[in-house]
Structure to design on (198 residues):
């Protein structure tokens, strides 16, 4: 018998796929526009809070290569896969990883408290910084990076957050330099970063 739950899950996966493809097209258009206008389309600015309450902006991390990823801690599969790949990439980079700062920004400000986000990222790698903010602050940061996210109700007071999945690379001066897909395996991510950093 075809289960209702399974059907619903298939629909969710399909819908997420559309979202990612739509986001990829949008980003691709944006980068074509960049080339034509020579203007940075992805701003790369954010003003958010560390898990300990400290206020930070992108400028706080100048001097490091920033790997910015937007997701949420109850994400069933996409976020854990990407964060694992980022962790593996840090390991592969060896001493070069000291010049890299991975940053996780929640797109679920209602549920992702600073405590939850702090513990979540530390479980992947203590080098991660997890950032939280008010819904407005998260919205502003997401617009800067052209991140798509939308709450989708599942019933029974449960919801998922559909979101685009890209790793944004900012150089030590804070300039956006590269967009990497969230499904890149860790070793390839490490290779890409090594190339950028050399
Ligand atoms: Ni996710």
């Amino acid at each position: 018998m075809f289960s209702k739950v399974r059907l619903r899950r298939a629909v969710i996966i399909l819908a997420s796929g559309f979202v990612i493809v739509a986001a990829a097209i949008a980003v691709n258009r944006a980068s074509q526009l960049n080339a034509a206008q020579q203007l940075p389309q992805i701003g790369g600015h954010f003003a958010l809070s560390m898990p300990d309450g400290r206020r930070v902006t992108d400028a706080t991390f100048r001097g490091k290569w920033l790997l910015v990823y937007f997701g949420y801690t109850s994400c069933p599969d996409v976020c854990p896969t990407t964060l694992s790949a980022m962790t593996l990439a840090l390991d592969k980079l060896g001493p070069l990883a000291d010049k890299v700062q991975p940053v996780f920004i929640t797109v679920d400000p209602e549920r992702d408290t600073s405590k939850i986000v702090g513990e979540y990222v530390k479980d992947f790698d203590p080098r991660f910084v997890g950032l939280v903010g008010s819904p407005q602050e998260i919205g502003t940061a997401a617009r800067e990076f052209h991140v798509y996210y939308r709450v989708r109700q599942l019933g029974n007071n449960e919801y998922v957050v559909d979101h685009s999945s890209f790793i944004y690379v900012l150089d030590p001066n804070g300039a956006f330099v590269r967009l990497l897909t969230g499904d890149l395996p860790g070793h390839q991510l490490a290779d890409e970063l090594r190339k950028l950093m050399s």
Observations:
- The chain has two domains: 1-39, 47-197.
- The mean pLDDT is 87.
- The pocket of nickel (II) ion is lined by residues 71-72, 75, 78-79, 163 (CB under 6 Å).
